[in-house]
Amino acid sequence: MTHYMKLNPEPFDKIASGKKTIELRLYDEKRKLVRPADEIVFTHIRNPYRSISVIVDSVITAASFESLFKHISLVDCGYEEKEINGSIHLDMNQYYSEEKQRQYGVVGIRFSKNTKRSLTNVHVPYDEVEAYLMESITKSVTQTPEVNEWYSWFMSINREALYAGEFKAAKESNTLESAIDYLDTIIKSYIFDQSMELRDKFCEENGYDGIEDIREFLYRYYDGTNIIEEYFPLKPWWESTKSSIIYYFCGLTTFNAKCHYFTVFDGTGEDDDWYYAL
User: If exposure means fewest CB atoms within 10 Å of the residue's CB, which of 122, 141, 166, 170 is most exposed?
Assistant: First the structure.
């Protein structure tokens, strides 16, 4: 069974970072339905498109928070060590009155982050994802020229015309997965175009007139390694940025969303020693 609960920014961020693994609530009718192995989806109260999925490990009930706090770790509830004292339970009175505690009782829900959550189940409009990406670029003070160049190009293109199918899927499905897929496609296309420009540069500067000559040059120059990816700094930037997007919207830090890049220099067969897939 899946349960839905809203959270203020601070506890939401603590769950995302792993600092909070127990949620404190009144043991009301809604919370009495929660069982071990159930899923809870916590939603950020200020941004409904940010959510974290957790799996319930155990449910601990008590007559009051004063009583409950004797049986659970307050650090796991999100408190800092310096905040913990003999009257810390009174902190909960600002959320739930003593009268409400006596009426319903209280509960501590221990959980673990749902690391198997699929990005298909994270419902986020594409425009929200793009807005977060654009904001992260414009607010960064350490952005590289390559990223700034890509940003200018991206802002100038007709999104509905470039890879229309992926763009339509991203706009219509409203999932984090489709948004990431579309941006992956855009980045891959851009890097491939960069590799074509690099090929032309090699031809012009070294007098090469065929791809075979370029392959031999690259293989000798890089000693048969994949260091060629240093020519494409957008790749590590995008992988890092993609991780931050996924973490921001659903709190996941481990996921299978690696983008496979290809350049004009890539091989197509198992015997190609010059294979430079990034």
Answer: 141
pTM, whole model, 2 decimals? 0.81
pLDDT digits (tens, 9 = 90+) for 49-75: 999 999 999 999 999 999 999 999 999
The angle that helices 234-250 and 176-206 make with each other, rounded to 10 degrees, is: 170
CATH class of the domain whose range is 2-114: mainly beta
Yes or no: say if 26 and 101 are a contact pair by the CB < 8 Å rule.
yes
**Residue ranges, CATH 2.30.130.30, the chain:** 2-114
Phi and psi torsions of 136, nearest 5°? -65, -30
The tokens for 77 are 């509830």
**Residue pointed to by tokens 């509905």:** 160
Q: Whole-angstrom Cα distance, residue 199 to residue 217?
A: 11
In whole angstroms, what is the distance from residue 94 CA to residue 65 CA?
12
C-alpha distances in Å from residue 252, one per residue of 80, 184, 229: 23, 18, 27
